[in-house]
Amino acid sequence: MERISLACEKISLISPGELDTSLDFSSKLNPFKTKDQELLLQGLERSGILSPILSIKKTGNPNPLVIDGFKRIKWALSSKIDTVCVITLPQMEEEELVVFLTTKYAPTLDTCVVRALFLYFLVEKSFKHKTIVEKVMPILGLEPHKGLLERYLKIAGLPHKLLLFCHEKDFSLKRCINLSYKPRRLLETIIGLNGIISLSASLLQELCDNIHDILRRDDMDVEAFFELKQVRDILGMEKDPSTKTRLLRRFVWQMRYPVLSSVHAQIEEIEKRHFSNMPFCIKWDRSLENRKITITGSVSSPNELDSLIDALSDKGTKEGINKMLARF
Amino acid sequence: MKPKSVTLHPDLIRHPFSQNFKGARVSKKSPMLTDYRQGKRHLFISPKKGDIFHICASLDTRYICCSTHVISHISNCPFECTYCFLQNYLTDTTLTVVADTKAIMAEIKDKVAKQPWRFFRIGTWELGDSLALPPLNQMAAALVKEFALTKNCVLKLRTKSSAVEPLMDLDHQGKTVVSWTLNPPEIIAKEEIATAPLEKRLMAMEKVARCGYPIGLHFDPMILFNGWQNAYEGLIKMVFSAVRPKDVIWISVGSLRFNPEMKKKIENNYPSSKITAQELVLGDDNKFRYPRPVRQDMYSLILDCLKNVGADQCFTYLCMERWNVWERVFGRYPVSIGHLDYLIARSVHKRFPKTCPTMPPKGKYMALSY
To answer: Counting beta carbons within 10 angstroms of the beta carbon of residue B362, is it exposed (0 to 12), middle (13 to 18) or buried (19 or more)?
Structure first.
């Protein structure tokens, strides 16, 4: 505020086209639908520009560098307004400028993705990494670590469509980091399936993890995987997205865990043969680590209890349980 | 392999061990490196601070563990094994060695005296390799001499190196077991970067066996790859053409395991390694392992191979495995961690009486609680 009051005599009328808007981060947020954008545009339409644009002097640049009022300028340009009211502050130190911009944008940086994009934007605008780590990250509530900045920058490099998805689903930092280590082609292909299959945040993560491991294990590339007959058949079938999702998920799981899948199939077969009409449920440790079968049943009358006891005492039950245990 | 820099704690300037590091930077503080790789190249020689003798940190009562003891006087390692847990464990990655042998021995003697009936196997490899660097080897040699004078302990040196020269001509009294972690050459080349090749490890093994040291063999971690069966079979043949079964005091077998946080670390640090892409399941101890049927096949193959080379007389045990895996592989299982501890001690007493002179009392081992 002190700076603004000192610079009051510098208010001038300038054509919006002559202003340097290179520090406009809000335009980068366009597809990301942050809270305040719609409201602001409605206000401008209703009342016009009520407060002056804020700018600073920049060495070697005849045009004032705008630091606040980007949307007003954009609106002025689109509304063909000749001049706008601009306050020009004296030149700012890098630290001061970056703190100003961060404080201004902080309320809109509400997901990991937009925070990543903002940090990337600052790097792109040649702000020093050290300044970003020490001054910007604490304002955004992030630990001031170089490594963390690098992770955010890696996230910012994810495919655009995926960034939008992660933003909409409010992906955590951990999830975003995990995705940022996957091959770009894989990410692009999977996010491209959204609509054909029902992609949720956890399913996206699961498919990326499992397919990436399959590719590495089998020395396969992304195209070869999605060209597999089974994958093509699933994605191309005339079924609803949720059916395709279930089938694709199962196929990927079987490919990623062939041993577990095969043992589970054997156990499921025993379950089907011995227990399909029994008044109890059979569960086993899906990791196959613990040799343990859990039998659960519920009763609502003495007769049901008798039936349950009879079923449990049945010779076939014992035989089935023994067969199942033998798979462990 | 020589460290790029050596930092010596001022308390150790007059210590005989420090005489090998004339010109070292003197500082009370470790360089406190945080980068996993960078720390491997810088050595800090430290005095002993606090207790360093304890039971192996991997012990988990849900698994059958061998309950070995360790002295954690080495921290970090110049080798680069892709599966090494240290990449996700150390805060200060500086390669650190506690040089004060007398202080270490005083702590050990004090603690083992409380259970004079027990046979203590004491390793120096918990957070590093026992023989990976010349300074560590001198340290190892000093410990060999000290352990030769103990009654109910044996020193376990475990390495992937071939640097055994400092151990030659020492009066070890059978109180030191020199052991190697062994994998087929394909795995050594890809996953045990900068370690000694198999032939060199085996030559070193032959040398120490000739000096009368009992030999320990650790086929752990076994790693799955195309052709693993033939590779491990070949490995066992090679090992037993270098040493005789009667030289081998024990054999441990285990498979790759790591905690979930390690997956990302391994993939970042060693992008060409495929170990994390194999089929893995999360166990009750929150560690990824190959599925149980796969592990059983791997262990059974090792047992068959040992039988084929006449090494089935060597005491063989599984490292950090479930009782049901033991049962599948051996047809029997120790009923508790104390039981396995007893079985090892009994085998050593029978086969290496100089190493474990008294018959272990079964009842006391079985009553041990963890």
So the answer is: middle
